[in-house]
Amino acid sequence: MTFSLPIETDRLTLRRYQESDYDDLLKLQSNDDVTRFLLYESKTPEQVRESLASRLADVPMDAEGQALTLAVILRETGQYVGEVTLFVYNAEHRTGEIGFVFHPEFHGRGYAAEASTELLRLGFDQLGMHRIIGRLDARNTGSANLLKRLGMRQEAHFVRNEFLKGEWTDEAVFAILVDEWQDRSATTESI
């Protein structure tokens, strides 16, 4: 599968990570407010180095478990604001999973929605995915609302199905199909 990077929007550049992004990634992944609803605790500097190394690796996005994580940069200032990830969830069934993590100082400005829209476009239009899901801690209402704004519908709410950070947590699952994406894209372009 092929895809084109970087991706430019009116306000953002979505690009591959670079070695020089270490300090920004450290600021993101070592922040307790950021990691509150994530699968991992705040990371140490060494763990962030390992995390950056995995983000620097080239991935063809043609097998389960592969992930493309892109740094999200403000075009006007060059400032790093967060990241978006597209996972190959099931290659045979052409299913992906979307994820996003943004620094709290950039919440509420529409950056996550703008970047995530482009990641859905990449998954459906360039990688030929049939379905893309979003999974999250059900307490994370901000991210759930974002998935809804992206046109994803909630398909499941699993009660106390994961033991994370010392407690049982609920998981919500959202999804969108390629034809729903195409219908949504045609509607928003005609407005």
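The above is record 1. Record 2 follows with the same two-line structure.
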Amino acid sequence: MTLRQHAAVNVLVGLALVAAIAVAPVAAHAESRLKQRPPEAPKKLPPVNSHTKNLDVLFEALKVAPDEDSARAVEARIWAIWMKTPSDTVALLMARARAAVEKKESDVALKLLDAIIKLRPDYVEAWNRRATLHYMGNDYVRAMEDIQEVLRREPRHFAALAGLGLILEETGDNKRALDAFRRALAINPHLEKVPEMVKTLTEKVEGRDI
């Protein structure tokens, strides 16, 4: 793979994406492989106001954005809506979770996200953040479970779809990985690096054009 180096991972993949994935033990040297992080919210987000509440309009605008700058502006508005916390308590817990991640205290961050999800299971971004942490910790089964919760609540979550593609690719299911990446691009054609992954996987799954 051109985007990152990783050791082979032996797995059994469920017939449906919602099924749990049985992942065989990873070789010791796999811990050093370079991983591609799923797309994340930009550091600075616009305030959520009457002009940014209609996600349907924003997703349509994202598809037809004429250039990268326009696309990034629309994408930031979408992220602003996704990131908007439903209560002051959730906002405080999310802030502490972000701080824990920055300090590389993944266990603390996971406990905080667990608390948010228990308190407000309708808050999609808590599921997405927890999925990312599970993925970065090589816990693909739990990452997949959280991604399914994200997509059940917001099927257009392009970051979750990209994360799904990464997991499926790394666990050897190139066909479903390609499908997930294509779905992500259909929603957000301006995702970084995903077009390259689609090109690489298309050659593997469908072969080169003759």
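The radius of gyration is 17 Å.
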